[in-house]
User: Fold this.
Amino acid sequence: MRFLHLLEVFIYFGWWLFIRELYPDRVDPLYSRLVVVLPPLFCFVLSYRVKWIRDHLETLFYATLYVLVTHNFYQNHLNYDLPSWVMTIYITIAGVCACFLSSRALFFFSVYLVGLGLYLAHVNHYRYDFFVPGLITITALMNITLYYRNRALKQVAEGKIRFEKLFNATFEAVALHENGKIIAVNKSFGELFGVDSEEVIGQEIFSFVAPESLDVVVQQTDEGWERPYEIDTRTRTGERIPVQVSVKRHIYEGREVRMVAVRDLRDRLRFEAERRKKLEAQAAVELRDQFISIASHELRTPLTPLKLSNDILVRLIEERGLDGLTSAHVLRILRNTGTQIGRITKLIDDMLDVSRMKIGHFELNLEDFDFNEMVRQVADLYAYELERSGTSLRVIAKKQPIPVHLDRNRVEQVLTNFVKNALIYGNGKPIVITYRCLKDRVFFSVRDRGIGIPEDKIGKIFERFERAVSAKNYGGLGLGLYIVQQIVSAHRGEVRVKSKLGRGSRFSAIFPLRAKPGKISFRSENHSNELELE
Amino acid sequence: MAAKHNAAILIIDDDAYIREMLTLLFESEGMDRIETAVNGAEGLRKLEAFGEPFVVFLDLMMPISSGWDVLDAVDGNPDLKIHRIAVMSASRPDKSELRGYPFLPKPLDLQQVVRFAKGGFKPSGPSTNGHSPMPD
Assistant:
């Protein structure tokens, strides 16, 4: 842009020097010429320095152009002769060409030229040759305009053919609409929605959108975003097709319309679903293998002391005969045997419970009993084991009975699971059982001061086969808390856990005082940790 | 043979019943110095604290510190006084994982246990470690 200023100076001043050489006798003041070419020259030089000039180069160019042209006409008016007149014409044409930068500038410039010509003709006693440059300008203008218009029309025609070809060649279904009325659709669109691409013209584009997706479309249209979004569409036969839609503004035959590209997502969704299913199946198989490995290890764990006590008894009797054994000896061995059988039974019960819960054959056997007495009994049951591991167990509760109507065995199981976990993960630190009656509910909790649960695992410990620690260090099937969760929710109760890593955990359960009988519906599990135990 | 009969025994296992039954077994075999530990850390403490070498029965899967931790510590500390170590587990570790230590699979074979305690046990794996000086 800044070089246009320089060009302006060269044309105006150069032409004048040329004329001066041709007609040395001409009276044309050098200073007045110099003065009028100074502004564009300054503009050129200062544009490198002053930001304001850089920002307004175009406006300044028009301003200086007007000054030059006015000066030229004025000189022509003062000393009317042929070279001056020719120069006026050339300057005018150059000005017109320069004004082609914008159609508005061109319009104002030509009006100005005609006006100037008419004015000078008037003050110069009706010499209408002053008007000639204006006429030439208009002729040039028309020629140039026609040239560009023809070129543009040709381009439009070619572009239209190209557009039509592309329009129909693309795999995507594309429709053009103006305010919702369809103007054109391509072949893919017709095929996707099962319509004739001619018939559909003039119909509402929204009639292809499934009713429940209309909100989304309206919202997207209002926001005017041009990014793709996914909706359901409806064909004329009522079939639903999930699609991705992207909308663009488009100029079609001179009108601003919207171009809607519709991509069929059925294949992609089907592919994704298959992939997901496959991954889920893989995860389930992996989980099952893992479980089988853990379960066989867990079942073998009590077998070791069981076999040991059995073998020891046999060995002792073989070596010493029955008379060589004290009854205390035998009792110690047989008690151990009993305990191990109990451990194995418990493991198998757990597995059966989970399998029963999974297929929904799990019913509560509600009975009336004293909650207080039940807790004490469980605590007594563990006295031996607690003593053995050197852990103390404290029960904090009021002495008075709490009559409840629950499944006694199941509630006992919950408490047992809590106590057992506290024993395993409690690091031998004291365990506290708290329980109390709250209006129509009974609340109990088991607190330990053991290893605690990492924060990111707390949410998962109630899932099947989940454990917060590795199976390498701690035994167990990973079913205990899952069973607890199921039992508690079957009673329409609530289970909570609070834990801090390295500081211990508190597991609590809340049961209604009187549970309602009837079939229990379990929460459906939609995660991939699915495994049939049978 | 008499010295071997009287070797002190250390049972490292988190299962109280296994500890109790093994103790009972060794007692009935006439051994009187029997120590037990519920995890690897306690076992190591006892190994360091006692003046005489032990015959160690080591379980692998234990809370707090496992049997592997004990083996690592033993390998890294040749000053520990140990006659020999037998690894016991219900899982079946690879020979390379065992690093040459003799392995007693659970459920335990009474004969093997007694023989190992008395020093006449032939290990199932190749013995390359200094702490298990039994013939191959």
